[in-house]
Specification:
The chain is mainly β and 138 residues long. The chain has two helices and twelve strands. It is globular and about 45 Å long.
């Protein structure tokens, strides 16, 4: 446990592999490790896993949020603006607020991305995102 500069108490977060709040969207899964509740909405941290030969969430942008991706496994493709970038394990990608982006797995192996969303709050959208994928998957 640590104390923040306002006198409040923050708890350390320790999660093992595959632990966290899980969201299943069929070919894509997210595991949130820390979000607005633990970070005072400063950031959220999540893993995004894509099955082989699968698209990501679709091209989108966040007007007020930067995103950082770090490739954990595989060779995901990342859309930044209008250009797809081929990545590999260990690649780092920063997407500034207001930039169109997407990710996909065009390979025959699973791919994983670690995501930092700054400031936080993205996880509050996850139930409606999961519902959208449930309603729209073929």
């Amino acid at each position: 446990m640590t104390t923040d500069n306002t006198g409040g108490t923050k708890q350390a977060i320790v999660l093992g592999p595959d632990e966290g709040r899980k969201y299943d969207m069929g070919f894509m899964k997210a595991v949130f490790k820390a979000d607005e509740e633990e970070t005072d909405c400063g950031y959220s941290v999540s893993e995004w896993w894509l099955e082989p030969e699968s698209d990501g969430p679709g091209a989108h942008l966040h007007e007020n949020n930067d995103e950082i991706f770090y490739v954990l496994e595989g060779k995901p493709s990342i859309l930044i603006g209008e250009e797809w970038i081929e990545t590999q394990r260990g690649s780092f990608i920063r997407i500034p607020a207001g930039t169109m982006h997407d990710f996909a797995n065009k390979t025959d192996s699973r791919a994983g991305l670690l995501n930092f969303f700054i400031p936080g709050g993205f996880e509050r959208n996850m139930p409606s995102i999961v519902k959208w994928f449930e309603d729209n998957q073929q």
